[in-house]
Specification:
Layout (H helix, E strand, L loop, with lengths): L4 H7 L3 E11 L5 E10 L13 E7 L12 E2 L25 E3 L14 E3 L2 E6 L6 E10 L6 E5 L10 E6 L5 E3 L5 E6 L9 E3 L1 E4 L15 E3 L5 E6 L11 E10 L5 E11 L5 E4 L3 E2 L5 E9 L6 E4 L8 E5 L4 E10 L5 E10 L4 E8 L8 E8 L6 E5 L6 E4 L3 E5 L2 E8 L4 E8 L9 E3 L3 E2 L3 E7 L6 E5 L5 E4 L5 E5 L3 E8 L4 E10 L2 E2 L14 E2 L9 E3 L3 E2 L10 E2 L1 E3 L3 E7 L5 E7 L3 E2 L2 E2 L2 E2 L3 E10 L5 E10 L3
């Protein structure tokens, strides 16, 4: 169908690829209704575009005076409005987005519906005259193109008129429940034109399931209060742990229509036992040891979806990587649990049978200053032609060779990989470096006055040839480490080269010849230009003078006996009374006496002192004298 005036009026575009289903019917009541879902692959990309795929339910007959052909009306409209259901009127955004269901990637319906978007379940209904003949045309079309399909799903048994309808609602979408798993609902629905009154419906219970034994008691009669069009009745099967096979329950309601017709509505639910779950698992066999091996399990016989639990790790998918690190077999356990909580545990056996292995690895150290290292490896259990690969000592150093020996390499870690027709194994080895020459020496003295005699001690290691350049014109090459002596009159740089015949190492040192002389400003021959003392300083003779009286009365004036000292580095002082008793004895740069013995001021009188003064260079000056003590 490429043209329909009614669809053109709704779609506001060129109709293509259309389809029409039309028939006559005689209603048994004064209202008809049915439920439907509109879906399309135009969603969501072409929502709001010119590709406004549309459909309509065009009803005509007695009492109907519409704008469509045969005076029909379109009852495929949004709730409480005359807005037709089209791509552009219902979508992911806008005022009518509440009526849109996103199914991109199977988000809403999984694989049941392929359309990327649908409407929610909508109801088409109209007021009719009892026992009159009506015509309905159900039409749907593409607009502008024929690229993306659209369709309408009409709910089974939902085309009704006057009677109370009994529907079944289950978790699985069919008419079955499972003991210990799922419940269901019997949905009693009355025509919308009757919702203003209270309605009591008595129904009959049939089937081979036992009331109160196989399922919990259910409400009877059903009471519709004013404003209520649907009453749900919970149906809950009892898990009796008896395998008595499938059982069913039938509810039957009888309605006398305003036309005087008798209409029987029936709802049926089947009760099934808990399932027997079976797991088909893989038992992988591998010939190459890896960190893990992929295994899979497929459960059936229960109620999907299934969750899986592997006993060794937190993996819940139907595949898992099972660790195995050595030859032999190891068992793992996988448990599959269905949507009802029923589960089954099975064993997955992993078998490892690897023959390839690294048998031996060896190395030769590299030289200090040349890449002379060697590594080698040997494999066993090879199947077919082996292939060798060396990597190291950094990730960018890769050597691909057809032999198990790698030569002329620096020190570091090397990874050895062997691959055959079946497997690949890896091992590693460290190549060390033979220590190279280390030049080192010490000297008995590093600075002094000319002529300066210096002994040099060779403390080098890992070397057999030594070349000395003393910087004073003398260059010596020796094969031993005996000390060497040199005389220096000028500052010189000393260079030692230590060699093992291949590698060299060099060290330098300094012998400093200083400007020597007297560096003490207190000496009579002080040389301000000298940077080092040569021991030639001459110092003046000490001059010592003593007081003739002290007054130790604590007034802070002349309380102490102290000497006037010039040019002395140290003075020894002894004070006695007239009978030769020692009153004080001290040695320092300037020893002093406070006129007290044992904390008490001595008696007034004449006292004697004797001193020995030492010059900086050790000369002694001895002197003596007397003084008076006057305390008051």
């Amino acid at each position: 169908m490429s043209f329909d005036t009614d669809l053109n009026a709704i779609a506001a575009g060129t109709v293509t690829n259309g389809a029409i289903l039309e028939f006559d019917f005689v209603p048994s009541g004064d209202t008809i209704q049915f439920r439907y879902v509109f879906g399309s692959d135009e969603y969501p990309e072409f929502f709001g575009s010119s590709f406004n795929d549309a459909f309509g339910f065009f009803l005509s007959g007695p009492g109907i005076n519409g704008t469509f052909s045969n005076n029909a009306i379109n009852i495929a409209t949004l709730p409480n409005s005359t807005t037709p259901v089209t791509i552009n009127n219902v979508g992911p955004t806008g005022a009518n987005s509440a009526y849109y269901v996103n199914n991109v990637g199977g988000l809403a319906y999984s694989t049941a519906i392929q359309y990327d978007g649908t409407t929610v379940v909508l109801t088409a209904k109209a007021v009719v005259q009892c026992s009159q003949t009506y015509h309905i045309k159900m039409a749907i079309c593409n607009v502008l193109d024929q690229s993306y399909d659209s369709g309408v799903f009409i709910e089974a048994d939902s085309f009704s008129s006057e009677a109370v309808d009994i529907d079944v609602q289950t978790v699985t979408g069919d008419t079955s429940v499972v003991e210990g798993c799922t419940n269901a609902m019997f949905l009693f629905t009355r025509p919308s034109n009757q919702i203003g009154d209270t309605l009591i419906v008595n129904y009959q219970i049939g089937g081979n399931a036992t009331y109160g034994v196989d399922y919990l008691p259910i409400q009877n009669p059903v009471i519709f209060l004013p404003g209520v069009d649907t009453v749900p009745i919970l149906f809950a099967p009892i898990q009796d742990n008896i395998n008595d096979g499938p059982e069913f329950v039938t509810l039957t309601a009888t309605t006398i229509t305003v036309c005087g017709d008798t209409i029987v509505s029936t709802g049926e639910i089947w009760i099934f036992e808990g399932p027997i779950i079976t797991i088909n698992e893989t038992d992988p066999i591998t010939y190459c040891i890896n960190d893990s091996v992929l295994a899979s399990a497929f459960a059936f016989g229960g109620y999907p979806p299934y969750t899986y639990n592997w006993n060794f790790a937190n993996q819940t998918g139907d595949t898992a990587y099972l660790p195995i690190s050595q030859n032999g077999t190891i068992n793992y356990f996988v448990t599959a649990t269905d949507a009802c909580g029923f589960s089954k545990t099975d064993t997955v056996t992993v078998t490892m049978n690897q023959t390839l292995a690294v048998d031996t690895m060896g190395f030769q150290n590299s030289n200090y200053c040349a890449n002379t290292g060697v590594v080698w490896g040997m494999a066993q259990g090879v199947t077919g032609q082996p292939f060798y690969n060396w990597t190291g000592p950094n990730p960018s150093s890769t050597y691909t060779i057809d032999a198990s020996v790698l030569q002329n390499i620096p020190s570091g870690w090397y990874t050895f990989t062997v691959a055959d027709n079946v497997c690949l194994v890896v091992d590693s080895i460290f190549v060390d470096t033979d220590p190279g020459p280390v030049a080192d020496f010490t000297s008995s003295i590093s600075s002094g006055c000319a002529p300066l005699s210096v002994n040099f001690i060779n403390e080098s290691s890992n070397a057999t040839i030594f070349t000395w350049n003393f910087g004073n014109g003398n260059v010596v090459t020796v094969n031993d480490m005996n000390p060497l002596n040199q005389i220096f009159t000028d500052t010189s740089i000393i260079t030692l080269i230590a060699s093992d015949g291949v590698c060299n190492d060099t060290i330098t040192g300094l012998v400093l010849i200083e400007n020597c002389g007297c560096t003490d400003p207190s000496a009579t021959n002080y040389n301000p230009l000298a940077t080092a003392s040569d021991g030639s300083c001459v110092y003046p003779t000490p001059i010592i003078e003593g007081p003739n009286v002290i007054t130790p009365d604590g007034d802070g004036v002349n309380d102490l006996f102290e000497l006037d000292i010039i040019n002395a580095a140290k003075v020894e002082l002894v004070i006695t009374n007239r009978w030769g008793n020692i009153m004080f004895k001290g040695t320092s740069l300037n020893p002093t006496w406070d006129g007290k013995v044992n904390g008490n001021v001595v008696s007034d009188g004449v006292y004697f002192y004797k001193y020995t003064a030492f010059s900086v260079q050790g000369d002694e000056v001895v002197g003596h004298g007397f003084f008076h003590v006057v305390s008051k």
